[in-house]
Structure formats: structure tokens, C-alpha cells
Write a structure and sequence with these properties.
The complex is a heterodimer.
Chain A: H1 3-9, H2 25-37, E1 41-45, H3 49-52, E2 68-70, H4 76-89, E3 96-102, H5 103-108, H6 111-120, E4 124-130, H7 170-175, E5 181-185, H8 190-203, E6 208-214, H9 218-221, H10 228-237, E7 244-247, E8 250-253, H11 263-267, H12 278-299
Parallel strand pairs in A: 1-2, 1-3, 3-4, 4-6, 5-6
Antiparallel strand pairs in A: 5-7, 7-8
Helix pairs in contact in A: 2-8, 4-6
Chain B: E1 26-30, H1 40-44, E2 50-52, E3 58-60, H2 70-74, E4 80-84
Antiparallel strand pairs in B: 1-4, 2-3
Classes of the chains: A alpha/beta, B alpha+beta.
The structure holds iron/sulfur cluster (2 copies).
The site of one iron/sulfur cluster has 13 residues of chain B, from α1.
């Protein structure tokens, strides 16, 4: 079965009409995730764009065709730990235990519960869709917002030129938790993304699996909805977002990027970086280069 | 409220659905003279509005398509045109 067959033939388990914006990466990731996970799944979704878009249900109606729990912003992994434990105890190892949360609920508010669940090796697949900010509440900065980005809490003015700090590299941090499987994915590399969801689900039967997925946000990043996939592609081509996996401690780059494009080509269509000077871009590049060399060292 | 058999809603009963087709300012129209039935558009549509009939025939269903334009932008054969809704 090719990845196209998986997407074409498996059932769409998400409400056909949800209020995610035009060209939303989160909606695309959620629909793909559930196409692979299938109907035998329990999912936890904390507040964020996906919950706001109605997939956790509204007024006694469900937004998904599988059981979905809306957790708190900070306890998704802890909540799912409890759910997965009772399922394991009852011998229901066939049920996929999945969480899907934004970067705020993953890297900031939900980080201690996530780190705890990963360290305990709870049997689940935790998926973070990273749109680099609190988009559901109007694009406040998060710890995965990159340096230079304009957000509503790091406005561009005479005091600061957008976010002054570099982002926290959550996939690396998660890889240091001795998890069964950790990987990054981008919707532009759909085959790679589907394979990683499959691997993550398989790994979740033995322990903790984590996927960090690049999630373009036309509304917050201010680009046309039609270029969402193109932005996700250029993020990888410019090494802004590298695609790798850590399978039982073994690091591997899944999409080699032999001829990288310049960072300028990636940030070009994104108005959140529209004010950036060459020096700002160079500072961001420095951080990207450091990440690249870290990955190369881990691959060995 | 429709009939409900479970406390946690499971299954097809009682699904919250929004009419997202009404958002559409432009509609994607597939040109089958150019289309090579590769399926790229189907894999990239965030709404799952592109469907497949049989082993290799792709078509757009307009029931929930938001008109984002991703399919038209990503089609390797430029076989999808975005046409303004409501006519010129
Ligand atoms: S991407 Fe283009 S060529 Fe491929 S199936 Fe869709 S319309 Fe046809
Ligand atoms: S315009 Fe957007 S929502 Fe409509 S079919 Fe194309 S990709 Fe899907």
C-alpha cells in the first residue's frame, strides 16, 4: 500500500467541516494522523487551534468519529498516561493512544507532563503540530517561535525587533528522553510524514513515541494559504526545519538536503519575518548551523 | 439534538459539522486534459475534499472545500485552476 493509497482509501475520521483557517497545517496533520491511526484510536487534544476549530466537539456533538478528550493546556501527556494505563491493564493493547497538541501545549505549558510521560515510557504517540506560537489566541510568542519573528507579544518597534530569543529545539530535547521513537516531519514530505506516523504508532505499543511536525499557519505567519505546502518544503530545503528520526536511540536524517536553498528564500513569503535585516537573518542562520552540526554529530 | 447512544459520543451520530464550502471565494476546477491522475492534490488537501474513484481517478468534491488553493499550487501539471465563485 503506497502512502497515497493510505490517504485515499482510509476513512476520514474528522468532521468534514471544521473551522480551521484556509490552508491550515494543523487540519492537514490531524486528518492524516487519523487516516493512519484508524477508528481504533483514543485521542487527547488540549486547547489550541484544533480544539478551537471544533474537533473536540461542541454542544454535545463530537468533532471526530473516535473518542476525543479535551485535556487542559498543561496536562495532555499526564491525562493520556492515565488512559493508556487502564487500557494496558485491561489488555486493550490494540487501541492506539494518541495525543495531538500545539507547540504551546507541548513545549511550554505542557512540558513537564510531557517530559514525565516520556521518561516513564508511557505507551502513547504524542504529536506536536508546531506553528511557532499561540495561534488560537492571536499569535503570542511561544518557546518554539524563532528569533526575529513578529508576534503579538513581541511586536516590531524601537525596543525589540520581533522575538529576541532563539527557539527551544524540542525534538532534540525529546530525543534525550530515551524514548522508543522521536521524529520530525513536514507535510510537504508527505510520504516521509505518513511513514513516521506509522512508525510512531508501532513504537507506541512498546513505549513513548514523539512526532514534531512543522505546521504552516497562513493567518499568523501572514502568507497566502495556497503556499502552505511550499513554505513547509522550503523550511526543510533551507535547513530551518530538519527531517530526522531517532529510532531506539539510533539517529538518522530521513530527507538529506544536499543543496540547501538560502534562508532568505524561505523567509521571503512570510510577513512575520518581513522586517528582518540581513543581520537578523544571519543571527537566525547561525542558530540553524549549530543545529545542523549537532544533528550531524548525533548521526555520527 | 439527534439520538445518542453513548455518553462519550462515538461513531457517526451527532457529529459537529460546519458548512465550510460557504467560505470559498474561488473554486478549484480540475482540467482532465492535463491531469495525469498522480494523486498529489489528494495527499495535500487539508480538508480531504479531493477523493479517488476506483484505483486511479481523482476528483474534487465541493461539499466542504474551503478554496485554499493548495491543490492548484501543488499540482505538478498545473491541471487545477482556481475559478472565482459566483461568476464574473
Ligand atoms: S495533482 Fe494534478 S495531475 Fe495529479 S491528480 Fe491532482 S489534478 Fe491530476
Ligand atoms: S482548494 Fe483547498 S480545500 Fe479545496 S480541494 Fe483544493 S486543497 Fe482542498
Amino acid at each position: 500500500m503506497s502512502y497515497i493509497d493510505t490517504i485515499a482509501d482510509n476513512k476520514d475520521l474528522v468532521t468534514p467541516g471544521m473551522s480551521a483557517c484556509h490552508g491550515c497545517g494543523g487540519e492537514l496533520i490531524l486528518r492524516r494522523l487519523l487516516k493512519v491511526a484508524g477508528p481504533n484510536t483514543v485521542i487527547c487534544i488540549p486547547p489550541g487551534c484544533m480544539a478551537g476549530a471544533g474537533v473536540v466537539g461542541w454542544s454535545f456533538d463530537n468533532g471526530l468519529k473516535v473518542p476525543v478528550h479535551i485535556t487542559l493546556l498543561d496536562n495532555t501527556a499526564a491525562f493520556l498516561s492515565g488512559v493508556t494505563n487502564i487500557y494496558q491493564r485491561q489488555g486493550r493493547t490494540d487501541v492506539n493512544m494518541v495525543a495531538m497538541a500545539g507547540d504551546g501545549a507541548t513545549a511550554d505549558c505542557g512540558f513537564q507532563s510531557l517530559s514525565g510521560a516520556a521518561e516513564r515510557g508511557e505507551k502513547m504517540l504524542y504529536v506536536c503540530y508546531d506553528n511557532e506560537g499561540y495561534m488560537n489566541t492571536g499569535f503570542q510568542r511561544s518557546s518554539t517561535t524563532n528569533r526575529g519573528s513578529r508576534t503579538s507579544t513581541t511586536p516590531v518597534g524601537s525596543v525589540i525587533p520581533g522575538k529576541p530569543q532563539h527557539s527551544k529545539n524540542l525534538p532534540y530535547i525529546m530525543a534525550m528522553h530515551n524514548a522508543e521513537y522521536v521524529a520530525t516531519a513536514s507535510p510537504a514530505y508527505m510520504k516521509d510524514m505518513i511513514e513516521k506516523i506509522e512508525k510512531g504508532l508501532a513504537a507506541s505499543k512498546n513505549g513513548f513515541a514523539y512526532l514534531h511536525i512543522f505546521s504552516p499557519c497562513p493567518t499568523g505567519w501572514l502568507h497566502g494559504p495556497e503556499v502552505s505546502i511550499d513554505v513547509s518544503r522550503k523550511a526543510v530545503q533551507s535547513d530551518y526545519f530538519q527531517l530526522f528520526e531517532v529510532d531506539k536511540g539510533v539517529w538518522r536524517q530521513t530527507v538529506a538536503n544536499k543543496k540547501p536553498i538560502t534562508l532568505k528564500e524561505f523567509v521571503g513569503p512570510l510577513k512575520k519575518y518581513g522586517h528582518c535585516s540581513d543581520a537578523d537573518i544571519a543571527a537566525l542562520q547561525e542558530n540553524i548551523d549549530a543545529r545542523k552540526s549537532f544533528l550531524q554529530k548525533m548521526i555520527g | 439534538m439527534s439520538k445518542r447512544e453513548f455518553i462519550t459520543p462515538i461513531g457517526e451520530e451527532g457529529i459537529y459539522i460546519l458548512d465550510t464550502a460557504s467560505w470559498r471565494a474561488a473554486r478549484p476546477v480540475m482540467n482532465k486534459d492535463k491531469c495525469i491522475e498522480c494523486g498529489i492534490c489528494l495527499t495535500m488537501c487539508p480538508v480531504n475534499a479531493i477523493l479517488r474513484e476506483g484505483p486511479k481517478k481523482y476528483f474534487i468534491s465541493y461539499d466542504y472545500c474551503k478554496g485554499c488553493g493548495i491543490c492548484a499550487y501543488e499540482c505538478p501539471k498545473k491541471a487545477i485552476d482556481m475559478v472565482k465563485e459566483g461568476g464574473e
